[in-house]
Structures are given as C-alpha cells and as structure tokens.
Amino acid sequence: MDFIVWTERYSVKIEKIDEQHKKFIGIINKLYQGMLDGYEEPVLGVLLEELINYASYHFKTEEKLMLEYDFKGYAEHKIEHEAFKVRIEDFYGEWQHGDKKIIGDLFVFLNEWVDVHIAKTDQKYVDLLTARL
Description:
This protein has one domain: Four Helix Bundle (Hemerythrin (Met), subunit A) (Up-down Bundle). By secondary structure, the protein is mainly alpha-helical.
C-alpha cells in the first residue's frame, strides 16, 4: 500500500526531475511500508538515511538547473530545500535517540512536503525551464 501515489499534478514536465520526484516518493513509500510491516529499527534507519541522501542529490539537480537558467525564485527555493534537510535530519536524530513516536510526525511532514513543495513550489520554475530545455 503506497502512502503517496504519483499523479500528474506533481509533474514539472521535465523528465529528469519527474523521475527524481517519483524515486523520492518511492523511498517515502518504502519507509511507510517498512513501518507497516514492522521492519526492525536498523532497516527503518537505513531507509531514513536513503531519504536524506536522495533528497540532497535531487536538490542539487534542481538547484543547478535553476542557476543555469537564471530562475528568479532560486534563493527562496534553496531556503526551502535547506529547511527540508534540517527537518528531516532532526527526525533522523530523534529516531536514532530512541524516539519512535516521531514516525507519525515524519509522515505528516513528508506528505505536506510533496503536496506543497512538489505540487506547488516546484511548479514555479516549470515555464522557465521547459521553455529553455
């Protein structure tokens, strides 16, 4: 059972970025399924690390394109990326220190991130980038 299902409202019409968003959502879904299946804590920790690492990789890809094509909203967008990384690392730190109750808050945060950042904030660069790529 997927926690988040990819829909076209998440598409930024740039294949490379859409594929990365799909993979990001896939990692969230693996983490969610692992929680439902009662995976051992080390496995869930590995999935959280995968999410953190993939988010950083993806953000670099987006930010490079925004800089290359002079996206005017770059600074604000980068701030959102940095805030995501800080928050997800906070969740991971709490998890490592034994606070397993954070998992519900983590999934609320991830769902909001996809619904707000991918479905709305990322849409702000679509016209510029699709016209130039």
